[in-house]
Amino acid sequence: MFVRRSLLVLPLALMFVRCADQPTALNTVRASETPLFLQWAGNVAPQFSATPSEHQRGNGRGAKKSPPISLDRYQATFWAVRGEARSIQINYQSSVDDSTHPFLRLTTSDPEFAPGVGAIARGDSVLITVTVDTTMIGVKFEPSGLQFGDHSELKIWYGGAAGDMNGDAVVDSTDARIEQQLLGLWYREGDDDAWTNLSASQNMADKSFKYALPHFCEYAIAALRELAVSW
């Protein structure tokens, strides 16, 4: 279905471009291996809520504001419009201090091509689904392979790990070294594909990574396992 201002796209449509074409990929882990992923504090996913851009309320025709993400779903949607800045921010309530903290912010303005559909005209929109990973600090965006003209901006915070970078339930100098030297933003194209480290910009002051997305894949915060577990 292709309708002005409301272009619906199946989340798992045929991919036109591989996420492995990311221009700033660094290290690739073989598909038989996995990096050391950051876990939510206490290995329990917190409660999440989603906040879309103030001017957007669904498909641009007065739809209701996106509700908070429910505990059994961990998913939110918003409409990205070519030629308009649209964003969504996902926050979480920490089990450590009971306060609300940012987890993710995605800003788009130029969705250019949707897999299985084709070019997106200026003013047309595509429904984006954001799914939070409940076992590690990561996220998946759909439709997978959605391409952008001007890259979308992703900022993801990893403070939800509460300083435990290697998952041993102890925060010590090893965690500090992992954060400073090994931690990064990783992606993979599909469930059976290898994870690759991206050259995202890290801000240790607010525990975050920022990256310009050329298209959608699955993303997570992780470190090279073979180095992290040897310290």
What does this structure look like?
By secondary structure, the protein is mainly β. It has one domain. It has helices at 173-181, 225-228; strands spanning 25-28, 36-37, 47-52, 75-81, 86-93, 100-108, 111-114, 118-119, 125-132, 138-142, 147-157, 184-188, 196-198, 201-203, 208-215, 218-223. The strands form 2 sheets. Strands 1, 2, 4, 9, 10, 12, 13 and 16 form an 8-stranded antiparallel β-sheet that branches. Strands 3, 5, 6, 7, 8, 11, 14 and 15 form an 8-stranded antiparallel β-sheet that branches. The N and C termini lie far apart (53 Å). Mean pLDDT is 81; it is low at 1-21 and 57-63.
By secondary-structure content and strand pairing, the structural class works out as mainly beta
Tally of alpha and pi helices: 2
Tell me the number of strands.
16
Morphology call: globular
Q: How is the biggest beta sheet arranged?
A: 8 strands, antiparallel
Number of domains: 1
Features:
231 residues; mainly beta; 8-stranded antiparallel beta sheet; 16 strands; 6% helix; disordered N terminus
Short description:
The chain has helices at residues 173-181, 225-228, and strands at residues 25-28, 36-37, 47-52, 75-81, 86-93, 100-108, 111-114, 118-119, 125-132, 138-142, 147-157, 184-188, 196-198, 201-203, 208-215, 218-223. The chain is mainly beta. β7 (111-114) and β8 form a beta hairpin.
